[in-house]
Amino acid sequence: MSRPCTTPLSFETLVAYWAGDLPQPASDAVDAHVIGCERCATASEGIAVITEGIRASISPFITAGELAALRARGLRIDENPVRPGQRAPALFRGDVDLLIHRLGELDLSRAERVQVRVLSEKTGEVMMESPAVPFEAGTGEVLIACQRHFADWPHDVVFQVSVIEAGVVRTSATYIVPHLFERAR
Amino acid sequence: MWAPAPGASGDDSGGERRQLLLSRLSVIPLSNLEALEAATDAELVRHAVVHPDGDGGVVGREAARAAEAELCRRFAPRVRLYGLRHLRDQDRALELVQAVLLVLIEAVRGAHIERPEHVDRFVLGTCRNVAARLRDGAARALPVDPAQLEIAGGIPSLEHLDTSALFRCLAKLDPRSRAVVHMCFHDEATAEEIGAHLGTSAGNVRVLRHRAIAQLRLCLDRSGDVDA
Known about the structure:
The complex is a heterodimer of chains A (185) and B (228).
Chain A: H1 11-18, H2 24-35, H3 38-56, E1 61-62, H4 64-72, E2 77-82, E3 90-92, E4 98-103, E5 113-120, E6 126-133, E7 142-147, E8 156-165, E9 168-181
Parallel strand pairs in A: 2-4, 3-9
Antiparallel strand pairs in A: 1-7, 4-7, 5-6, 5-8, 8-9
Chain B: H1 13-23, H2 33-38, H3 41-47, H4 57-87, H5 90-109, H6 119-135, E1 160-161, H7 163-172, H8 175-185, H9 191-198, H10 202-223, E2 226-227
Antiparallel strand pairs in B: 1-2
Helix pairs in contact in B: 3-4, 4-5, 4-6, 5-6, 7-10, 8-10, 9-10
């Protein structure tokens, strides 16, 4: 057995370590401790599998370049163009890996950043939000990468997009996209 | 039972080091799995030393290999964690594991670890050096096929995470916690940035973050979707 641990690292410290939220000396100290401590290594792995699992997953908000890379990897991808204010039901077919919602007709020419909230139409519950998603200024689009595991989330999806220019919300658009998921095949 | 090789020489400095290590050997029967697991890291390092005359008997060689394998079993997951954290890539983390274990095995076989009780420091230093080379885009850091050093079996398989299970658990978090997790690990936003967006303090974001990760861990453990 490795040396018994007399000063186990706290859960909070390990989460901060995996979040990259520790000052360098503290992060170095965690490295040194975990290398010599089986108990804390096990605890650290239990956190890493979650944080790195999230990092490794496909972001729900992607760029056109990332979309091209996913296609190049061989993923089967459907696309669903949606206009502001439109109710556009979407079928996540069983034979595709990703469904890309193209939230279009946005004036992004002067956008500083774009904020997206994903809500349930019925309950208003915010399923996901990001204050700064990637956007395509040239085509006026935000690309949402809908994934099969989102089938566990509410299906009555509303995307609220806010375009921020010079620190102020200039335009907002809402896209209503009720989802239907086919069983994967 | 492990026993020093007859006629072990101590003529040169390397030999003296080996002699010193051999003199510290305890008499743990390393063919015994429980004894192996109970041995300290330092004892394993001492047991894994290759005899200067290359012999030591079949039992001695097997014991040395068993000690080596146990060292690899212990350090592989920790090196992999270091790699994940600093290289941010599963494949490169595994490459780091193999490279570091190779260096470790060569060092223990050659009795180059002067203070076996601090073998973890040797491993950490090697991790830092090899990871820096990998980050700099060096070609594969492996000098030889790991199979040649018989360590392949010493690298445990990774915990497999079902992404669907993770997202099912994410869906169960309250919206604020989910936003914190997403912004932190997908957007790589700082606690201060997340706090500014959510209208709360960075300290509160950190509390929400670690509570959310704890909930996710509990959810995954209960769902049984994580396979060791």
